[in-house]
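Listing S7. Sequence submitted for prediction.
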Amino acid sequence: MAFKQIELNMGPQHPSTHGVLRLKLTVDNEVVLKIEPVIGYLHRGMEKLWEHRTYPQITPLTDRLDYIAAILNNLAYVLAVEKLAGLEVPKRAQYIRVILAELQRVASHLAWAGFNANDIGAASVLLYSFIEREGVLEVFEAYCGARLTVHALRIGGVANDLTPKLIALIRQVVAAVPQRLADIEALLSENRIWKHRTIGIGHIAPDDALRYGLTGPALRAAGVCWDLRKNIPYSSSEDFDFEVPLGQNSDVYDRYLVRMAEMRQSLRIITQALDRLPEGELCAKVPRFLKIPPGEVFHTIEGAKGELGFYIKSNGTDKPERVKMKAPSFINMQCFEKMCQGYLIADVVAILGSLDIVLGEIDK
């Protein structure tokens, strides 16, 4: 019996679309022929809103983009402003930024591991992930009072110092996370159902990944060694010894392996930063009313999802003339159809989860 092509909607209310995302699928039986992502349901006009705020007022608004990794949004923005304004950030503040950013990466990847496993049917992993993620969020709460939309950084430096008590709490978290990662791997890495649902699924060739602009863990799972902390260092990232985990098969399973390995490397960076934390000031001397001479700048960092960048154009006032964000979730969605063609409807959920998108960042 021949089946004709039909169109299906997945979302925007579907729980596995990681936010308000609508996917228009064209399928032959259960085989995906075409996918059209429909975005914009969460659009808040952030980039236009930023044109009507002073430079410091914009910083907490960046928390609301990738709300699973708020501090990394803060970091990309303040680095861009500092580059445009010619501000030199004290070394101690740079190290504290690295510690907070890598803790945020761990929290983001833990959330991803739980969500992606839950999407595929391994509900227990979500609980394992959130147990340890809770410890990271307690660090953020102790540092600045927030847990999700964490306004931890300031233009020129950081909000607070790391007290001995807080450093002890961070070390406690760093010591606990590896065991939780081992528990997750014991549940998944050799699980025959997990491997059946992830190995060989969502493959994209390295050349295609580069052409589509894929970045972050999904690109490194294709075997492409590109990590801005290594290739274009920022905030003293060149001071730390760590490896860039790579995959070979560029499938859902390799994206899982890369992120699990990245969390261990982040813990390694945090430990080094705590051991070598220099003395000194927490913030550069920033004018109370920051006015930046006319000019433009683009600065990018290695976010949890991929390359996260900000373009800022100044007109000499205390408000930017233009701010544009390069959102890795938005860029990475370009290759989603390529990854899904020829696979089953059930695989769409696994492939989308492996990209680790956040719609707050895509829609802005």
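Caption to Listing S7: primary sequence and predicted structure tokens for the chain studied. The chain has a mean pLDDT of 92. The domain at 43-350 is CATH 1.10.645.10 (Cytochrome-c3 Hydrogenase; chain B).
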